């Protein structure tokens, strides 16, 4: 098994006043040649947007963009006519494909919205743009891996144009489980949302990230009550 550790305090950081953003991988003004991606995982941004503020309309192409709110409400609009409002428990996906322009803003004028913005490099270019959002029961991730993203519309979760699976998990203190990778050649990036855990023998704290590959399974133990995001992605 190979691993790469990204401590929370090693992330890139940009505070624009209305936007406070931490970057696990190179993004915007943060460029680190050693932190360009983890396999097909290109961007993992931990964003806080002030009330009434947001990202104006801007274009994307050939990228799978997933948003996971952690608190507050996030509003999406795009030039294909899609409109959605998501909050904690929801997951949103935009497959940019041949090209799409969208905006993301805090739906509230008084409360912050906190969310993860994740970009995955697709396995097929120039597909038709597509938008989706789904709600998930938070109780279904208690001491188990709740699948929220998959490569197939026939599987649970939102499907994206890549052989990738995302799971959320809320573990009680001392709970342990093994994550079995679903496809040979994939790696797993574990991002700690809250609490402390030990993953593959590595102790992790809040907002630490750990990538693991060349393995078929990964052991995970909660050292305190913990919330996790697991991102399984191709390494090639």
Write a structural description:
The chain has strands spanning 2-6, 12-15, 19-23, 41-49, 54-60, 64-71, 73-78, 83-87, 90-95, 100-106, 113-120, 130-135, 146-150, 158-159, 165-171, 176-180, 186-194, 197-199, 202-204, 209-213, 217-222, 226-234. It has 236 residues and is mainly β. A hairpin with a 3-residue loop joins β2 (12-15) and β3.
Describe this protein with a few key phrases:
236 residues; 22 strands; 0% helix; Jelly Rolls; mainly beta; seven-stranded mixed sheet; 55% strand
Rg is 17 Å
Span from first to last CA?
16 Å
Total of domains: 1
Uncertain segments are none
Layout of strands and helices, then pairs:
Blueprint lengths: L1 E5 L5 E4 L3 E5 L17 E9 L4 E7 L3 E8 L1 E6 L4 E5 L2 E6 L4 E7 L6 E8 L9 E6 L10 E5 L7 E2 L5 E7 L4 E5 L5 E9 L2 E3 L2 E3 L4 E5 L3 E6 L3 E9 L2
Parallel strand pairs: 13-14
Antiparallel strand pairs: 1-20, 2-3, 3-4, 4-11, 5-10, 6-9, 6-11, 7-8, 7-10, 9-12, 13-15, 15-22, 16-21, 17-20, 17-22, 18-19, 18-21
GO molecular function: metal ion binding
Pfam family, one: Pirin_C_2
Cofactor: Fe cation
Could you give a quick summary of the protein structure above?
By secondary structure, this protein is an all-beta fold. It has one domain: Jelly Rolls (Sandwich). It has no helices and 22 strands.
């Amino acid at each position: 098994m190979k691993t790469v550790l990204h401590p929370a305090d090693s992330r890139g950081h940009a505070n624009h006043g209305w936007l406070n953003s931490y970057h696990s991988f190179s993004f915007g003004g943060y460029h680190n040649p050693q932190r360009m991606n983890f396999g097909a995982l290109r961007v993992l941004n931990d964003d806080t947007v002030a009330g009434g503020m947001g990202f104006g309309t801007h274009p994307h192409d050939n990228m799978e963009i997933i948003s996971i709110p952690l608190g507050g409400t996030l509003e999406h609009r795009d030039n294909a006519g899609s409109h959605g409002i998501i909050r904690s428990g929801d997951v949103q996906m935009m497959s940019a494909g041949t090209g799409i322009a969208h905006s993301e803003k805090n739906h509230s004028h008084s409360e912050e919205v906190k969310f993860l913005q994740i970009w995955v490099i697709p396995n097929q270019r120039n597909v038709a743009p597509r938008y989706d959002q789904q709600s998930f029961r938070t109780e279904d991730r208690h001491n188990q891996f709740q699948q929220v993203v998959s490569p197939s519309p026939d599987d649970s979760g939102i499907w994206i144009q890549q052989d990738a699976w995302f799971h959320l998990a809320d573990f009680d203190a001392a709970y342990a489980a093994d994550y079995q990778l679903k496809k040979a050649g994939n790696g797993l990036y574990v991002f700690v949302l809250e609490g402390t855990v030990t993953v593959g023998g590595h102790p992790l704290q809040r907002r630490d990230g750990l990538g693991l590959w060349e393995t078929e399974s990964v052991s995970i133990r909660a050292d305190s009550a913990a919330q996790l995001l697991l991102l399984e992605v191709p390494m090639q």
